[in-house]
Amino acid sequence: MSGCVTDRARELACRDSRAASHLKVISIFVIFLTSVAGISFPVLLARFFHGKAAYDRAVLLIKCFAAGVILSTSLVHVLPEAFDSLSDCAVASRHPWRDFPFAGLVTLLGALLALFVDLAASSHVEHTIHGPSKGTGPLAYKPLGAEEVQQQEKKFAELELAVESGALNFHVDPAPSDSSSSSSEQQLAKLKQRLVSQVLEIGIIFHSVIIGVTMGMSQNQCTIKPLVAALAFHQIFEGMGLGGCIAQAGFNFGTTAYMCFMFAVTTPMGIVLGMIVFSITGYDDSNANTLIMEGLLGSLSSGILIYMALVDLIAVDFFHNKLMGSIPWLKKASFIALAVGSTSMSILALWA
């Protein structure tokens, strides 16, 4: 029980419900404004470049910066906080929390959940565009080299026919146009990017609610004061990360505005919810049940964000993006943008 001993004198001096409530009200407006600024910047930047020669490159760099921010958010902010919540002495002294690393397990479940949603939604999108799969179409399975073998067999058959007839001026049909296939692939990629943006917002909203509820339930003004400034910068960078993905998804104005608004109000709403929970139950941010809820939701959010950042953002752009592969300097610039995004968000872990 020695691990649960705290500096009671300092805790009592910092515990001031009236001052804490005043700081929370200020933080609601500050965090809302900084969230709006963070998520709007990449969206407006993409619209500014829209129709210009550098549009695709600008959106790609914004998205790589966003991927770095989201990866850092999951690994440096959300996951350590989840482990801290579930390893707190108020929780770790209980059964079964002391017997098993639940934070890691729920993070794994979050990643598997994101994979399941990804597979189900992608299958639905492909079915919508191409109809039921019957082994044909642009997405049908083709053995490696099968197309080349068929072309060679066709040429040999035509050559034999030409030799038998005494004429060598055989005719080879031109390759069929793949414009319809290319159009379908582009449409599929666009829908996939929209799916990624929506799942990312869900994961980030989990995280934002946890942050807000934790601050709303806290009565420690010494903890809240530095958190207001730190969370303001935190929301700016996290908003830029999500905004970069929304910008590339190409939503209409109404959907883009709605997604930006939901991100901006989630943390302030969490603060209000935390204040209501404290006024009803008397639970503060050090209560064991509160810590368990924070740890489990944080772990789930972390698993979702790790999967989305690595699989649907970084891997797709660095290994499957034709634009990046065709311009050597763009791949270097994209990696730098990824590193800058992850570094910027990681530095904020010193304060929040």
Automatic annotation (TrEMBL):
Record keyword Magnesium present: no
Membrane topology: Multi-pass membrane protein
Keyword annotations: Ion transport, Membrane, Transmembrane, Transmembrane helix, Transport
Transmembrane is among the record's keywords: yes
Molecular function per GO: zinc ion transmembrane transporter activity
Location relative to the cell: Membrane
Alphabetized InterPro entries for the sequence: ZIP (IPR003689), Zn/Fe_permease_fun/pln (IPR004698)
Spans through the membrane: 25-46, 58-80, 100-121, 195-215, 227-246, 258-280, 300-321, 333-351
GO cellular component: plasma membrane
Family the entry assigns: Belongs to the ZIP transporter (TC 2.A.5) family.
Designated name of the protein: Zinc transporter 6, chloroplastic
